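Internal ticket #5521
Category: modeling
Description: The requester needs a full-assembly model to guide mutagenesis choices. All entity lines are attached below as received. Residue total reported by intake: 646.
Assigned to: D.W.
Attached entities:
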Amino acid sequence: MPSKYRPPAVLALFLDPQKLLDAVKAVKDKGYRGLDAYTPYPVHGLSEALGLKISWMPRVTKTGFFVGAGLGFTLEAWTMAWAWPLNIAGKPFISVPAYMPVTFESGILIAGISTFCAVLIAARLRPAPNFHNIDDSITNDRFGLYVPVRPYESGNVQTLLKELGAEEVRDLA
Amino acid sequence: MSDEITEHPPQTRHSQAMTAEPPIYRADLTLTQVNKDITAAIFRRPNAYWFAGMFVASCCLALGAVVVWIQLHVGMGVLGLKRPGMWGTYIVDFVFWVGIAHAGTLISAILFLFRQRWRTAINRSAEAMTIFAVMCAGLFPLLHIGRTLIAYWLIPYPNSRHLWVNFRSPLIWDVFAVSTYTIISLLFWYQGMIPDLATVRDMHPKPFARKVYGIFSQRWKGTARDWHHYEAAYGLFAAIATPLVLSVHSVVSSDFAVSSIPGWHDTIFPPYFVAGAIFSGFAMVITVLTVVRKAFNLEDYLTIDHMELMAKIILATSMIVSYGYIVEVFMAWYSENPVENHIYIWIRFFGPYLWAGWTIVFCNCIAPLIFWFRFARRNMVILFIASIVINIGMWFERYVIIVTSLSQDFIPTNWRYFAPTIYDIGTFIGSLGLFFTMFMLFARFVPVIAISEVKSVLREPVGERAALEESHA
């Protein structure tokens, strides 16, 4: 990975999610901001502890659904009533009940695709053959706490995190 | 409930809410152990069973390819399609495979919304099954239209003929429903897999494999922010997939219910098709997982308790399907309509197709009743045999619905007994080959159980070392 500027920070690895949650609270109480945690699975209560805002995914899905359904219905109505109106069994050109399945499916399709793209954007996901995570054990059994610090604070924060039960503390300057 | 928590203080530390229920996995499993057990199949050379299975499956697939080539080369005449039965086993196979697909979405979406935590053991492989089954299903209409090269005419696109598809036709609803279902299932499955692919990426000893898993795991870092959005999106996918799965088989059933053929024109079709789909899908999940848990030593994860719960769902859906059969027969008799009586009662149970009619009664209504007994729900041999019997029954259910209704239509001079040819059978065997080949490859290269989801429902979600330290303390 090409080296980029990384702000000075401290990474603490815990073996126990409960210790991570306690550490988040303790470090926040000391006034540190911009914390992030690395976990192998979604730890219950971590989003609240870090004070993350409600995810914006639902708005994407909702918008996607209505846009997709609207496009689906417009396509049906336009092709059947406008582009080439055909009298099929004497039914109205815009047969609303018969158009509902395709309207619904198009809504779901666009909602799903846009939600998936939103996750890729929100979590900054993209194919990366040479990517190395901050630590290989994050996806295994370690719970990391990432604390951005000013360079002179690094030592104090490391001691604090060790006291909070961190198995390993690393300076990411 | 609070009494129970105070009784077992060491187990309640991490997740107090879970202590009210029995543990889903063995209480002493650690995060490290979960990683090791589930990814073991990817890192070691597959055993002889895998190679044998792969050989048989790919032979079936090759047979199917030859049969399909002959059918495309010679024409539709090689099949058993003769007037009036112009919908034959291809449509039967299509409905059968779409039905199989439904269990995966049910497990990943509906059981998720109902907070059924045991689904974590089976959701990944069931979703994989969904995708492979939809792929098999999609092949049949494409072959059945006869002029497969111009299958793209089904898609509404501006063309030089200025013609559009007829959106009032259930066959076009099908195109939209099945393709939406394929895409959404694929995205849902892949999104759920990203953290686990990252796990494999971080564990893999070979640099090349790390690169490949790195491409598919999309730079997954596992930060709290990532999980935050990921979980929100997962819930939303479940919320949109739930009505989707119900709509897809309802649309498939509309192919029949919207027509005016006696035997097809039936308002009970959508719910009865959806129940049948879940019924056959769960049976297929049991068939496949019985083999997977043995072949990859995953008995600690795909426990007998999970099998028992699936057997209960099979029993419940079997009851719904049986109710559907009874309503069909009752309504035909009660209506005193001679045509309905002829199709629903005479042809299917006493006439030329009585063998098929009684097969489905035995396989779908009587055989699953064994799951009323606890020993049967917890015996892998009985489960495996019953699941295959149910799938045979569900294939014949579609056979009975499609073939019998068409074979004796309004004009008796047209009547003809439908008989499939070896090409009908060969194509079906080919689709089984495609399904199992895909599944074998999936089980070899991707974690068959959702690692991160299993981790999140462990009693003591800690690593091996933390567990060791605690036991010393």
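Resolution: model delivered.
Comment from assignee: The mean pLDDT of chain B is 89.
Ticket closed.
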